[in-house]
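Q: Joint fold for the lines below.
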Amino acid sequence: MRMIFKTSYDADINLFRDREQGFWYMTLLVLSLILPFLLDTFWLGEITNVLIWAIAGMGLMILVGQTGQASLGHAAFLAVGCYANVLLQDPVGLPFILSFPLAGLIAGLAGMLIALPMTRLHGVYLAIGTLAIAILTEDLIVIAEPLTSGVMGLVAPTINIFGLEFDRYGTPGRFYWLVLAIAILMVLAYRNILRTPLGRSFAAIRDSEVSARAMGVNVAWTKAISFGISSTITGLAGALMGHFAGIFNNETFNIIISIQLLLMIVIGGLGSIHGAFFGAIIVALMPQTIAILRDTAGSVFGGGSVAIPGLESAIFGAILILFILFEPMGIYGRWVKIRTYFQLFPFYRRDMFRRQKSYLKTERMR
Amino acid sequence: MKALLEIDNVTLRFGGVVAVNKVSFSVEEGEVFALVGPNGAGKSTLFNLVSRFYDPVEGDIRFAGESILDRRPHEIARLGIARTFQNIELFEQATVLQNLLVGRHRHRQGSFAGQILFTPFVRKEERRHREAVEKVIDFLDLQPYREKYIAGLPYGVRKVVELGRALAIEPRLLLLDEPASGLSVEETQDVAFWIEDIRKQMGITVLMVEHDMHLVSSVSDRVLALADGKMLSLGTPQEVQNDPAVIEAYIGTSDEHERVVA
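A: Joint structure:
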């Protein structure tokens, strides 16, 4: 059992709680950096995919986990980011280093514009509203054919930064490092938001809008900001997804992706950066895991590998149900419990994380 | 003494129900002013009018001489009016520290980009806010709960945290909606001492709604009794408690039956 004695306010402001925590994160960083030397191209590609999904998850997490606004339409911002990034490179002729941040900015502005009317809605109505946005975007991609070449799709060019080429197949290591660098920047930005008034006003809106207002938080505007940050990060992930997939069309960003994104952060653990990463590991690695398991099962029991349609979604759904029933705080919640168990050993109590219910919400105002 | 908050002939209707009916009073700078009355008298509605959650159909509300009717709800805290809620509206999934820091929202400085990059200026600001919040923590003896999540705290502590959050705003006027409801005798005693100190040490004017007449008469300078949205009696706690109209509103009179018949 360890006790941390805080001797300055900075102890609560710093990125890492103490040296030990800093050490572990640095170890993780070093491990991530040397990963291209340890893994083959296939697995490196899979890890890159995990990172891209984690960035998208962080985007949605800001909105859902931090600000408490549901969105079933985040595939729309993936699409906006992806198309903007590629179109800015190809017909417009900007280099990736400009088109990429611009794509994020465009997705962010789109998000804010949508948010200003949309965030007047609450709960399930907001979810339906954002769902409509996702469906609309899918159709818009088909309608705007001269720009997006509709169902034919677009091909993402190879990323070129000052003469260095980043290609998923040609230079998988470099592509991985690029994605890793962007993921780390996003984590830092996310952490910084959390420890400033901005992040606290998000949490205030999530937990009680009426009291956030009484504290001087401009609720409508702050929701729009949250939506904007969220769609910016998601848009950046979309841009990376485009380069990762190589070719994409309206189907790449369909409604299933929106739902998958939302389920991902719920499974990972709402309200934490860890949750976005844990969820991304599940979502991005599951198809491969199922395929490998199927092959193994096929070779053991005979009968070869038979593809079962819909198996992936079924397993995904089952995992989600199990989590909501047994661990509503997601994988991160379980992680925190296990960590606390060892930190407090042998003083951990079973109901340590049980939250007291408050029954005095009768006269709540919206 | 000059009036800090003036409620001028304010009326509010919900459909056919007149929740507040031509109420006028003013709270002087530096006093503790209490609103009392039976349930549904319009006390909390008056708070919500001052918080600008409701728009009055008639009348004017002035703070420090200026009408606040053209202000939006989130601008009220910036003017220096803080409030607590009858049923505790804390940020449940956040720690006590974070809750109190939200109270500092109106004092925040630093740009959007600065916050995302966490510039040295933003860090300096964070330290400043933390210092202010620590003062509140010391004042209310909340030290053991800094890192605790609200969702796991007992009712009495939550009540204190909400008071602390309002104090973190560093307001000129503090609206307390039933600060002692649900508290034990000892805790109510604490609240009485705190209200005294808030007025004397911090120089904050207090307007409160409270049912505990013992608390009301021990801390407040003036009391306004309301019933059915109308003003019944205004004066010192002693005067109001002895006013026949107030007694009638609370327990009725013996000749009520005759009056109804007549």
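Q: Anything notable?
A: The interface with chain B takes residues 9-10, 12-13, 189, 192-193, 195-198, 200-201, 203-204, 206-208, 210-219, 225, 271, 355-356, 358, 360-365 of chain A (CB under 8 Å). The beta strands of chain A are 154-155, 159-161, 164-166, 247-248.
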